[in-house]
Amino acid sequence: MTTLKGLTATEVEQKIASSQTNQFKEPTNRSYWQIVRENVFTFINTLLFSIAVALLFLGKYSDAFVYVGVVLVNILVSLIQEIRAKYQLDQITSLTKPKTAVFRDSEVIEIDSKNIVLDDIIVVSSGDLIPVDGVILEGVVDMDESLLSGESNLVTKKSGDEILSGTSVITGTVYFKATRIGMDSLANQITNRAKSYHKNLTPAQYEINITVRILFVISILLGGLNIFGSLIAKTTFSEGLQVTAVILGIIPNSLFVIINLAYAIGAVNILKKGALIQKLNAVESLSHVNVLCTDKTGTLTTNRFELVETISFHPKLDQILADFSASISDPNPTVSAIQAKYKGQTHHHKIEIPFSSKYKWSGLILDHPDLKGTSILGAPEILLKNINDTAEQLEIISKAQDKGLRVLAFSYNDEILDLKDSEDQAKLPSDLHLAGILIFKNELRQNVQQTLQNFNQAGVEIKVISGDNPNTVLALVKQLNLSDELKAVSGPELDLLDDMDFKNVVLSHHIFGRITPDQKEKIVETLKNSGKYVAMIGDGINDVLSLKKANLSISMESGSQASRNVSDIILLDDSFESLPHGLFEGQKIRNSLDVTFKLYLTRVIYLILLIIAAGLANLPFPFSIKQSSLISLLTTGIPTLFLTFWAKPGISQSKKLIFPSLDFVIPATLSLAIFGSILFFGFTFSNYTQISDFARVLEPRNQSSVRTILTTFVTLCGLMLIVFVAPPKAYIGQKEHPSPSWKPTILATCIAACFGILFLVPAFSNFWNLQPLSGIEFLLVFVTVVAWALFLQFSWKADLLGKFLGRKIT
User: Fold this and answer.
1) Residue pair 534/527 in contact by the 8 Å Cβ criterion
2) Minimal CB count within 10 Å: which of 87, 424, 560, 615?
3) What is the C-alpha separation between 559 and 568, in angstroms, rounded?
4) pLDDT for 463-492, tens place per residue?
């Protein structure tokens, strides 16, 4: 029984009053307000909402609603997914926050770790996580510091030694005094270096952002020219604002809706397989990974061992082992592995020596008629010093250790031996009898071998980075059967290299041992700077910096809270089973983006070209706000939604989006703009009676009629593009399609029929500013669409663009 008393209630109140508590804000966990702010208050959203507000003031309520409706959907999809992920993470965090036992007023009470104050006396025993830094006052423990250092070896701590937050007790009990709490603790100092939230963009998102920014600049230039022209022509503010709204509408906001929806679908699908997506783009990001870095202890392996073989030199070894392991009062992972294989009975013991990494053995003297004697389990290099005739045993042990297996020796003597010296300290007897050799292996997490092999076969390079001895890590990785050519290097060796040699070693080696958290971060950064797309899997505080640095970060549910907070994906129940499913979902998203990007880029560019053509010819603006929104909805919004659902997994032919799309986009946009301009000019000129009327502004009804004709043409052409980008037959479209399907063609036909219905229902046609067209007008539009489609198909097959440029642009 301890004589410690702990702080009094008065002293605790004084500590709280002076803010000497363990209360601190988790630096890497975003608040709900941050999520809302990052998704709502963007520059483009603010600009579009401002125009919508101006339209409301002008009484254009339906125009304002149509204009920002897509933006609102995009915001809603993003918010739902990210808030949902935060809520689930908070639930996991609350479930994994243990109570802490402290001495106060000579009594042990349990409190939340955030209520610890400076100088509190804390009691911890087997299985407890250390909540703050401190100094041991009483007791001896073996500590697992792998979450902090990455090393799986146990460390013995005794009175006067420092004990660190983020570590855990394996055996023993100690009382320690809290010396550093809150953000002063070592664990929080490490995680504080990763405090800033950073949203990594995938390569596809990066290209899309570049495209949107370019389109934004173009829309601002066109909008500025429109405003300048409106001032010269003295058009009304309302007309100028509506035209400006249409021009700014070329920014493809609904593209973000489709992308975020694809991400949300992928996140839901992978959640069913056991992974929580914290960052919306994480699933797609998984499809880009070409280097997968992973920690060993707690990530590839559990903290458990498996007893794979027992070599007996005693007739009753099985029974002795069973009762020995069952009688241990505080079993460590090794004893637990023996218990899993041998079911024994618990007996009273006279003396027990708990395992300590200091002397590397544990001993037990049982007081039972059948098994009265002394049992000792320990490291062979320690026990065999006191055992004769060990040549055969040494060979067995050496072969097992060469395979990366853990070997322990077990000694049994039916006599009562002295296990303590005169100072009551543990002492190994001099005359031991070897009863058996026990061979263990680290227990790999479920499905980790198959998962890593799947990544390896997909061309993803695996690199294991650990704080353990590189030979130990190398032996473990050999069990995974990933490669026959594995190179290992240690942290101290890396410290001797200059930057160039460091880079070469990082690129050529697969196993990294005795690595510090800073080195782990540098390895990941070096891989990224070398053009690799890096995923990092970790579970400990020592992994936080490298997780933050990686393109994609993955953590274990049972890992530290800090590692979970900075990760894009959390493996629930610590299962790797979801990762292959995540890879397939990522491929589906990536393939859907190929199609979606082509359709959106084509629509935006031909709208820009038609707007410029109309402006240069001094013709009326070609579309109203609602007509532009209708074109976007029917030709890209609805179709890409279905195409996203229908996307199939498979490795994309290119990691890029923009340049591979140009072979499709340039012929489609140029031809559509040319045919559309001819149609627009033709119908516009047909309303003039004299050449001198060329500069006259058309009557409102004539403007609406011509706009309706052009809207009909580009809508039908946009639906034809769906057939071309996802054809029913392999030979239709730009090039041979690997998986033709009739679904997109049927969808395009159904949308065309719905578009036709809009003309038949006055309420619909009035809302969308569609004027009735005569039969001859519909026929001319249809003929023009067919002519355009045939010409476009010919231009692709004849490779007119490639011949004009003298090369393929992809």
Assistant:
1) yes
2) 424
3) 14
4) 999 877 787 788 788 878 777 778 899 888
C-beta of residue 379 within 8 angstroms of C-beta of residue 432: no
Q: What is the pLDDT of residues 184-219, one digit of tens each?
A: 887 777 666 655 445 677 888 888 888 888 887 887
Full residue range of the structural domain in which residue 506 is found:
288-300+446-576
* Residue 438 shares a structural domain with residue 450: no
Return d(Cα 496, Cα 487) in angstroms, integer. Answer: 18
Specify the pLDDT at position 809.
52
CB-based burial of residue 481 (10 Å sphere; 0-12 exposed, 13-18 middle, 19+ buried)? exposed
Query: How many C-beta atoms lie closer than 10 Å to residue 10's C-beta?
Result: 9
SS3 279: coil
Does residue 756 contact residue 712 with C-beta atoms inside 8 Å? Answer: no
Tokens representing residue 661 in the block: 């799309």
Alpha-carbon gap, residue 225 to 221, rounded angstroms: 6
Burial status of residue 87 (CB atoms within 10 A of its CB: 0-12, 13-18, 19 or more)? exposed
Cβ neighbors of 691 (< 8 A, separation 6 or more) are: none
Angle at 678 between CA 674 and CA 683, to 5 degrees: 150
Burial 154-165 (b: 16+ CB within 10 A, else e): bbbbeeebebbb
Contact 537, 529 (CB under 8 A): no
Q: What angle do CA 744, 748, 749 make, to 5 degrees?
A: 120
Amino acid at 417: L
Q: Which two tokens stand for residue 656?
A: 């890029």
Rounded alpha-carbon distances, angstroms, from residue 709 to 640, 657, 749: 24, 33, 19
593 and 740 both lie in a single domain: yes
* Last residue within a domain, chosen from 513, 546, 576: 576
Q: Please state the domain count of the chain.
A: 4
End residue of a domain, out of 390, 417, 443: 443
Query: Do residues 674 and 654 share a domain?
Result: yes
- Between strands 291-294 and 534-538, the pairing is parallel
Residue type, 47: L
pLDDT digits (tens, 9 = 90+) for 239-262: 666 677 777 767 776 677 778 778
Bridge-based pairing of strands 534-538 and 301-312 is unpaired
